[in-house]
UniProtKB/TrEMBL annotation:
NAD-dependent epimerase/dehydratase domain ranges (all copies): 2-224
Pfam families named in the record: Epimerase
Protein name as catalogued: NAD-dependent epimerase/dehydratase family protein
Organism: Pedobacter changchengzhani
SUPFAM superfamilies from the UniProt entry: NAD(P)-binding Rossmann-fold domains
GO molecular function: aldehyde dehydrogenase (NAD+) activity
InterPro entries: Epimerase_deHydtase (IPR001509), NAD(P)-bd_dom_sf (IPR036291), NAD(P)-dependent_oxidoreduct (IPR051783)
Length: 320
C-alpha cells in the first residue's frame, strides 16, 4: 500500500492523480477540516484518512500495511512571524513520519526544497553537492526545510530506505492564484516592476513524475534537485504578461525600493491583521541569482522536463 501525506496540497494532489492514473490504489492523509481538491473528487482509488503528522497517534491506522510513503505535507511561508509553525510542521512533523517509516519498515520519498541547499556562490550553479553553511540571516522556511531533511538523513543512518527530492519553485495551473500562482496574479493585474534575480522553476507535473520514477527505482540514500530551467524574473514576468495579453513589467525594482516596500507592508499588516504581500525574505530572494543544476535527476531517471515557456502558456491559458 502507498501512503501520501499532504495529499490535499498543490503537489500532493498532482502526485495522487498520477499514481491513480497508473491504476494504483493509494491511501492519503488529510486533516479533518481539509477539503479534497476538485482534481481528486470521486476518485475511487484514493482512501482518505484523517490524521495529523504532528500527532503520531492519529496516524497508526494510516500506516497499516503501508510499504511506500511519499511525504509531501509541509507548511510554506516566507514570513518570519510564522517561524514557530514552520518548525513545528516541517521539522517535528517530518520527525514523526521518519520514525513511523522506521517502525513500519516503509520506503520513504521525502519532499524537501531547494531552500534547504543554502545560499548560492556567485557564478556557480547549485547542485546536490552543496552543503548548508550557517547563516544567521537565513529564512525561517529554509531552516525548517534543512532541519526536516536532516531528520530524514538521521533516519537513513538508522536503516531507513529513503530518497529526497529538492524541487525548485513549483508552478502549475491548479495552484490558481495562490502560492506560486500569486506571481501570475500580480502580473495579470498590471504590476509594473520586475526584480533583478534568477531562480529555478519546474512544472508540478514533472515534480510528481520524478518522484514516482525515483520511488519505483532501486535508488536510496540520495537527494535530487528537481528543476526544469533557471529563469530570470524579468523574462518570467514578460512571458506571463504575453500569456495574459497585458503589458509586461518594464521597471526594475531596486533593492532599496523593495526594502521600503516590505517595511511599509509589514507596518500596515500590524493594523489589518493580514499577510504582507512582500516580506524581507521574499524581497531578498527576488534579487538573488540562484541557478540550479538538474543533471543528477536527468541521468538517474531519464526524465525530460517540460520547458518553462510551455508551462507558462498552459497556466495563463487556464487562468484566463
Amino acid at each position: 500500500m502507498i501512503l501520501v501525506s499532504g495529499g490535499t496540497g498543490f503537489l500532493g494532489s498532482e502526485l495522487l492523480k498520477q499514481l491513480t492514473d497508473k491504476g494504483l490504489t493509494v491511501r492519503a492523509i488529510k486533516r479533518e477540516k481539509s477539503l479534497i481538491p476538485v482534481l481528486l473528487q470521486n476518485n475511487a482509488l484514493i482512501n482518505w484518512v484523517n490524521g495529523d503528522i504532528n500527532e503520531p497517534a492519529t496516524l497508526a491506522d494510516a500506516f497499516a500495511d503501508v510499504t511506500h510513503v511519499y511525504h509531501c505535507a509541509a507548511f510554506v511561508s516566507l514570513n518570519s512571524k510564522n517561524k514557530k509553525q514552520l518548525f513545528h510542521v516541517n521539522i517535528n512533523g517530518t520527525t514523526n513520519i521518519v520514525n513511523l517509516c522506521l517502525a513500519y519498515n516503509c520506503r520513504l520519498l521525502h519532499v524537501s526544497s531547494i531552500a534547504a541547499l543554502g545560499i548560492p556562490k556567485k557564478g556557480e550553479k547549485i547542485s546536490e553537492k552543496n552543503f548548508w553553511e550557517y547563516d544567521s540571516k537565513a529564512h525561517a522556511y529554509s531552516l525548517s526545510k534543512y532541519e526536516g531533511e536532516m531528520e530524514v538523513w538521521r533516519g537513513i543512518t538508522e536503516g531507513l530506505n529513503a530518497v529526497i527530492v529538492n524541487p525548485s519553485i513549483i508552478i502549475g495551473k491548479n495552484a490558481g492564484f495562490e502560492g506560486s500562482g500569486s506571481i501570475f496574479k500580480m502580473v495579470k493585474n498590471g504590476f509594473p516592476f520586475f526584480t533583478n534575480g534568477t531562480s529555478g522553476f519546474v512544472d508540478v507535473e514533472d515534480v510528481a513524475k520524478a518522484m514516482i520514477l525515483l520511488m519505483e527505482s532501486e535508488i536510496e540514500g540520495q537527494r535530487y534537485i528537481v528543476s526544469s530551467e533557471n529563469y530570470h524574473y524579468k523574462r518570467l514576468f514578460s512571458e506571463i504578461a504575453d500569456g495574459f495579453e497585458v503589458k509586461a513589467p518594464t521597471k526594475e525594482a531596486k533593492p532599496w525600493m523593495l526594502g521600503l516596500a516590505w517595511r511599509g507592508l509589514k507596518f500596515i499588516s500590524l493594523f489589518t491583521n493580514s499577510e504582507p504581500a512582500i516580506t524581507r525574505d521574499t524581497a531578498e530572494s527576488s534579487t538573488t541569482d540562484s541557478n540550479y543544476d538538474n543533471k543528477k535527476i536527468v541521468e538517474a531517471t531519464g526524465i525530460q522536463f517540460k520547458p518553462i515557456a510551455q508551462s507558462l502558456k498552459e497556466i495563463t491559458q487556464h487562468l484566463k
